[in-house]
């Protein structure tokens, strides 16, 4: 067996390396989903199962602490890995999924244990799902820093044992993902004061979030309790060091406490898919490092706090979709200070009023969803300046007037440009959008997805141009359903002559 050993000297993880690890997990979602353990050397490993750098235990030098070896046998038996109990020295003949470190007397201590098939090429021991359990022997590993159990107990759902709170104070990372754990989060977890990563994603935990987590876990950098059935209010969370907070997909209710604004190191905050009510606290603008804010699918009310539109200037992704913020308007200066904003999703948020020009001053914007609101007025010509825009949804609003995009922009977005079900959008063959005046009008119209020409005499948006009362769009793979409901009978002849219907006959 090839032995891998990690470096014997192990400086404490510095905040900058931890931040780098978390940064990876944010912006390389596929590679980083499990950027959760801290490798023995103190350097963050990009993946939990990435090859460890290190050295081999010298043939005769050192042995595993006998008490810890016994505990490891118990833990391995409890996961259906009896094979491990025949290994004479677990740190010497180690497998992928156990990490050990020597002390100055060459006694080896277990610092990390990992279980579960993360991917096809991961070699962590897997658990026998029908009889595995978390062995109390875990509390007999005084040097343990990281525990990782992934899909281990699915056939034998069990509560999280309170003895987890008695794991060694050296523990920095506790990951129990996709394990079908039931019942409450034990308040005892708040005793793990050195914990940097707590990840209980995708279980069936159904308590409130214990207040002890807030008071006890002062070193926490990443808290992921997403995809459970947690209820009750959002507690005041440990805030100073927290980089990642993911409580999405639970049943959390009540307001977002304004104190959340004191989590000044947050990079990602995902509270989506809960039952949160009340306004969005304007203290969020104080989180100067925040890159992702997702509050979608809650019951939050308006208005949008002014401060959110001016900061945090670090925001890259802002998702407020599906909240009943009825009557909320996008402020005239709308988000224009958020120069790094790439994704802005405000669909189905009860927005009224018009789309401000200032949205065209977000140079990094790639995705803009304003669909399913009650936005009126015209589409601002400034949106033409969004050269990186890949996806624009303005469908299901009350917009009128000319579509200000040129042919290149329409082509670029293709089916990701959605304009269906507005009041009276139309296309101007001679607008300043760079389209070729001499181009065949039928062909030009085809670029605009079947939307009729503006009536030359009609004031844009006056609604007097029969041919522009309704239009078709590329919304969805086949527009035929929409087409039948929105094709105006009165203007039919004119539309028939002048408007090509995108995909009308697409097989
Ligand atoms: C651990 O936490 C629980 C509940 O939060 C508390 O009652 C208990 O005294 C703590 N135990 C230790 C050893 O600190
Ligand atoms: C915007 O992004 C750039 C490039 O990624 C980065 O250097 C800059 O610090 C960001 N600005 C803010 C305010 O976060
Ligand atoms: C748009 O709607 C707002 C309120 O919902 C209204 O005050 C305004 O007059 C409307 N503007 C247009 C151009 O219809
Ligand atoms: C058109 O959009 C409005 C919302 O602005 C929505 O209520 C209505 O159901 C939509 N109509 C169709 C046919 O989708």
UniProtKB/TrEMBL annotation:
- Superkingdom of the organism of origin: Eukaryota
Which coarse location class describes where this protein primarily resides?
Answer: membrane
Low complexity bias spans:
473-491
The way it spans or sits in the membrane comes to:
Single-pass type I membrane protein
Q: Kindly list the GO CC terms recorded for this protein.
A: plasma membrane
What keywords were assigned to this record? Cell membrane, Glycoprotein, Leucine-rich repeat, Membrane, Receptor, Repeat, Signal, Transmembrane, Transmembrane helix
Q: Signal peptide position in this chain?
A: 1-33
Disordered, as annotated region:
459-491
Per UniProt, subcellular location reads as: Cell membrane
Q: Coiled coil located at which positions?
A: none
What's a GO biological-process term for it?
Answer: response to other organism
- Official protein name in the record: Protein TOO MANY MOUTHS
Q: Name its species.
A: Aristolochia fimbriata
């Amino acid at each position: 067996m090839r032995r891998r050993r990690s470096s014997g000297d192990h400086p404490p993880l510095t905040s900058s390396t931890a931040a780098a690890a978390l940064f990876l997990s944010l912006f390389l979602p596929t590679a980083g989903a499990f950027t959760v353990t801290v490798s023995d050397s103190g350097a963050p490993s990009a993946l939990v199962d990435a090859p460890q750098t290190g050295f081999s235990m010298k043939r005769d030098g050192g042995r595993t602490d006998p008490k810890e070896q016994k505990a490891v046998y118990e833990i391995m038996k409890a996961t259906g890995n009896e094979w491990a109990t025949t290994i004479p020295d677990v740190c010497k003949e180690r497998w992928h999924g156990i990490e050990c470190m020597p002390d100055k007397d060459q006694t080896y201590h277990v610092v990390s244990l990992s279980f579960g098939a993360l991917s096809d090429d991961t070699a962590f021991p897997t658990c026998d799902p029908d009889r595995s359990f978390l062995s109390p022997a875990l509390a007999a590993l005084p040097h343990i820093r990281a525990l990782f159990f992934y899909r281990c107990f699915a056939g034998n759902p069990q509560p999280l044992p309170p003895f987890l709170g008695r794991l060694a104070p050296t523990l920095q990372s506790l990951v129990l993902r996709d394990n079908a754990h039931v019942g409450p989060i034990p308040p005892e977890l708040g005793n793990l004061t050195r914990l940097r990563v707590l990840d209980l994603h995708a279980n069936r935990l159904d308590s409130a979030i214990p207040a002890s987590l807030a008071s006890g876990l002062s070193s926490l950098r990443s808290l992921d309790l997403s995809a459970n059935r947690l209820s009750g209010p959002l507690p005041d969370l440990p805030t100073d060091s927290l980089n990642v907070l993911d409580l999405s997909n639970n049943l959390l209710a009540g307001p977002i406490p304004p104190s959340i604004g004191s989590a000044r190191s947050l990079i990602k905050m995902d509270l989506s898919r809960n039952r949160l009510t009340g306004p969005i606290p304007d203290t969020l603008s104080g989180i100067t490092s925040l890159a992702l804010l997702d509050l979608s699918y809650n019951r939050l009310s308006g208005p949008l706090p002014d401060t959110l539109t001016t900061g945090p200037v670090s925001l890259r992704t802002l998702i407020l979709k599906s909240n009943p913020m009825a009557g909320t308007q996008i402020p005239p200066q709308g988000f224009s200070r958020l120069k790094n904003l790439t994704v802005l999703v405000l669909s189905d948020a009860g927005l009224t009023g018009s789309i401000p020009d200032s949205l065209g001053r977000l140079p990094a914007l790639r995705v803009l969803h304003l669909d399913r609101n009650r936005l009126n007025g015209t589409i601002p010509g400034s949106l033409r300046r969004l050269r990186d825009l890949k996806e624009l949804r303005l469908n299901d609003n009350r917009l009128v007037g000319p579509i200000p995009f040129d042919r290149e922009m329409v082509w670029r977005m293709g089916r990701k440009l959605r304009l269906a079900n507005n009041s009276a959008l139309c296309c101007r063959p001679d607008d300043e959008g760079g389209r070729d005046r001499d181009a065949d009008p039928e062909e030009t119209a085809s670029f605009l997805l079947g939307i009729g020409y503006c009536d030359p005499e009609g004031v844009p948006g006056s609604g007097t141009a029969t041919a522009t009362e309704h239009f078709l769009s590329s919304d969805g793979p086949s527009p035929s359903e929409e087409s039948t409901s929105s094709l105006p009978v009165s203007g039919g002849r004119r539309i028939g002559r002048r408007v090509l219907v995108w995909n009308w006959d697409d097989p």
